[in-house]
């Protein structure tokens, strides 16, 4: 009995009980669909974050005060007094670290910005003119913070588009005076519209000179220093150079941390790959449950068709003919379920981002391949036991079965 | 053709061994027309199953066309059933989802005959048993007599030298039963060895040799005039 013949018999058995076959397949369909969909969402997040981070430039160095290590280990806070990063540190880096094109000091805080009777809590970034170049954010109307503003601690502010719209609506903001945490600031510029990146609304922010920021938040330290090198190959040497300069200035203590965008990217990548694998694994469990459903139905089917098995055996069917018939039936159920699952899974993965824009998806070929081969394997694995049971029926017992 | 010598069959029911056949020796020559009779529980069905290679004896030897059966593997037995033996059952045992034609083709499928040839061989047989206009009907759409004729066509499709019929008229009215017996008689005349298990004396009366079983033993074996 050849394959096509056996396949015909199996298909006939599947079609003769459409509702039951459909419900059995549904288990596999949902399993395969879930695997593809969840892996696509995980992959989508990874692709999205990679794109966002590399958009900022991978040769970016982020220097933060305090020593933390990305390589694990525990650093007790009593290891020494932590010296803050200062504005002078950033100046020193700019002067002496020749591999760095920029060393941008940043203070960060929140403040209430008010204009007439309108107010808004927003993020306040104190920085220097080079910020624009390092972070790829540029002023749209008017001017950005200038070096002169930094040197003289000017009370000027550059608004993000969202803040501008909230406070001024359609009218021009340039030259207007706003109140920022009880101090009066003059608006000199409005940023270009950028939208959301990594869940942070870049437009809901205001920029002031770093020195004014230190005064506003009553600190002489910095939140971080953003530095950049022109070439990606120089990143490692630039780190060494930066360390040298800062350690000398910090009483020979390494009480700061230098992270690179590249390192952050690879950390993110690792985390999200694990996340994707976990999501896929959870979905895989539902595929397993679908497989058990197939086994359950196949066992019922074998029992129901005991007499048929007996007749076939009496007419000359060998054990392997019966085995093949039920195996192919189980594999057809799981295979067809797998294909329908792939279609619905890929379809949903493509449709979801259209309606839910915070859920980017990326359909990867390997997840389709994985889900399908896993569902086929489920069919084989859970088909074997019922098929063996069918094949080894005693023909006489089977013929007498009512 | 069939040589049984000292065949015994015991079943294990829990802790007790039940002997169904004991010391059966029997020779059947090619072309014979035999009825096996006996009350229920006499072991006639078990004897039939052993002759039909559906079951193996517990002890004794069985030669079918000079080949020892009791040592054959499951696959070898399946091949013998497929090519050498045709079965007709009391309950017809057709596959309910298949048409009459497809039912007749089943033994050919397991014999490895290609689809095109199968139709060519199955259709004349259905015509021969008078069902030319019923080929595409399913068993449920046929009367008992018609179903049994499909079963006979199925049994004959591989041209087996031996036909085994287990109470072939048991579920039929007397007219249909007599038609079936006519077909079996005609087959025997054309050279097929026919063995009928029955408890109906009228059926046995049409055979040329009657074997009586009781308590698993042959108590009478007579050739009719």
Could you state the CATH homologous superfamily of chain B? P-loop containing nucleotide triphosphate hydrolases
Shape of chain A: elongated
The rough form of chain B would be described as globular
Number of strands of chain A: 12
| Biggest interface pair, counts | A-B, 23 and 26 residues
Give the spatial strand order of the biggest sheet of chain B: 6-7-8-3-9-10
What is the CA-atom radius of gyration of chain A, in angstroms?
Answer: 33 Å
Mean pLDDT of chain A: 86
Oligomeric description of these chains: heterodimer
Whole-angstrom Rg of chain B = 17 Å
Write down the CATH topology of chain B. Rossmann fold
What would your notes on this structure say?
The complex is a heterodimer of chains A (402) and B (225). Chain A is an alpha+beta fold and 402 residues long. Chain A has helices spanning 3-15, 18-55, 87-96, 131-135, 147-151, 161-168, 210-216, 235-249, 261-304, 306-314, 319-355, 365-391, 395-400, and strands at 60-65, 102-115, 118-127, 139-142, 156-159, 177-180, 183-191, 196-197, 200-201, 205-209, 224-228, 256-260. Chain A has 2 domains: 3-52 and 266-400, no CATH class; 83-254, no CATH class. A 6-stranded mixed barrel of chain A has the order 2-3-10-5-7-6. A two-stranded antiparallel sheet of chain A has the order 8-9. By secondary structure, chain B is an alpha/beta fold. Chain B has one domain (31-43, 74-223): Rossmann fold. Chain B has helices spanning 44-51, 74-84, 100-110, 115-128, 144-156, 174-189, 201-205; strands at residues 2-13, 16-28, 33-37, 59-64, 67-68, 85-88, 162-166, 193-197, 209-214, 217-223. In chain B, a hairpin with a 2-residue loop joins strand 9 and strand 10 (217-223). In chain B, helix 3 runs parallel beside helix 5, helix 4 crosses helix 5 and helix 5 (144-156) packs parallel to helix 6 (174-189). Chain B is globular. The model of chain B has no long low-confidence stretch (mean pLDDT 91). The interface between A and B is medium-sized, with 23 and 26 residues.
């Amino acid at each position: 009995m050849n394959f096509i013949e056996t396949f015909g018999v199996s298909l006939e058995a599947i079609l003769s009980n459409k509702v039951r076959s459909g419900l059995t397949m549904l288990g596999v369909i949902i399993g395969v669909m879930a695997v593809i969909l969840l892996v696509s969402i995980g992959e989508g997040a990874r692709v999205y974050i990679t794109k966002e981070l590399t958009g900022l430039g991978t040769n970016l160095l982020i220097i933060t005060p305090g020593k933390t290590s990305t390589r694990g280990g525990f650093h007790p806070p009593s290891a020494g007094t932590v010296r803050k990063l200062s504005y002078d540190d950033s100046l020193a880096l700019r002067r002496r670290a020749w591999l760095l094109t920029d060393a941008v000091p940043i203070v960060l805080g929140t403040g209430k910005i008010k204009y007439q009777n309108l107010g808004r809590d927003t993020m306040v970034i104190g920085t220097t003119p080079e910020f624009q170049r390092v972070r790829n954010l540029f002023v749209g109307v008017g001017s950005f913070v200038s070096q002169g503003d930094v040197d003289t601690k000017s009370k000027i502010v550059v608004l993000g588009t969202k803040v501008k719209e909230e406070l001024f609506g359609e009218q021009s903001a340039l030259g207007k005076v706003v109140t920022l945490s009880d101090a009066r600031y003059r608006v000199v510029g409005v940023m270009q519209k950028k939208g959301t990146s990594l869940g942070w609304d870049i437009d809901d922010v205001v920029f002031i000179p770093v020195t004014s920021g230190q005064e506003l938040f009553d600190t002489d330290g910095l939140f971080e220093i953003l530095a950049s090198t022109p070439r990606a190959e120089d990143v490692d040497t630039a780190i060494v150079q930066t360390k040298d300069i800062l350690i000398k200035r910090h009483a020979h203590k390494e009480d700061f941390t230098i992270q690179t965008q590249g390192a952050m990217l690879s950390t993110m990548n690792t985390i999200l790959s694990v996340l994707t694998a976990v999501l896929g694994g959870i979905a895989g469990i539902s595929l397993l449950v679908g497989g058990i459903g197939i086994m359950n139905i196949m066992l019922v089917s074998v029992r129901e068709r005991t007499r048929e098995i007996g007749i076939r055996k009496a007419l000359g069917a060998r054990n392997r003919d019966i085995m093949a018939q039920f195996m192919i039936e189980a594999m057809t159920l799981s295979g067809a379920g797998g294909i329908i699952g792939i279609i619905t899974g890929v379809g949903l993965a493509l449709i979801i981002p259209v309606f839910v824009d915070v859920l980017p998806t990326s359909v990867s070929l390997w997840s389709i391949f994985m889900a399908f081969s896993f569902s086929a394997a489920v069919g084989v694995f859970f088909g074997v036991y019922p098929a063996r049971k069918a094949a080894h029926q005693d023909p006489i017992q089977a013929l007498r079965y009512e | 053709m069939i040589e049984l010598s000292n065949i015994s069959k015991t079943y294990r029911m829990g802790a007790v061994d039940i002997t169904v056949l004991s010391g059966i020796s029997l020779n059947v020559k090619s072309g014979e027309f035999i009825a096996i009779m006996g009350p229920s529980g006499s072991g006639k069905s078990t004897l039939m199953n052993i002759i039909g290679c559906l079951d193996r004896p517990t002890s004794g030897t069985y030669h079918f066309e000079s080949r020892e059966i009791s040592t054959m593997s499951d696959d070898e037995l399946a091949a013998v059933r497929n090519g050498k033996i045709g079965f007709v059952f009391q309950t017809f045992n057709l596959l309910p989802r298949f048409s009459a034609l497809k039912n007749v083709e089943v033994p050919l499928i397991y014999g490895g005959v290609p689809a095109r040839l199968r139709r060519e061989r199955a259709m004349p047989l259905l015509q021969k048993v008078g069902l030319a206009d019923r080929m595409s009907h399913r068993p449920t759409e046929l009367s008992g007599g018609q179903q049994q004729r499909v079963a006979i066509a199925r049994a004959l499709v591989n041209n087996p030298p031996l036909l085994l019929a287990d109470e072939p008229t048991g579920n039929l009215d007397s007219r249909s039963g007599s038609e079936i017996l006519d077909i079996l008689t005609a087959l025997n005349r054309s050279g097929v060895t026919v063995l009928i298990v029955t408890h109906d004396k009228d059926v046995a009366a049409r055979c040329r040799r009657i074997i009586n079983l009781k308590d698993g033993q042959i108590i009478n074996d007579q050739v009719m005039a």
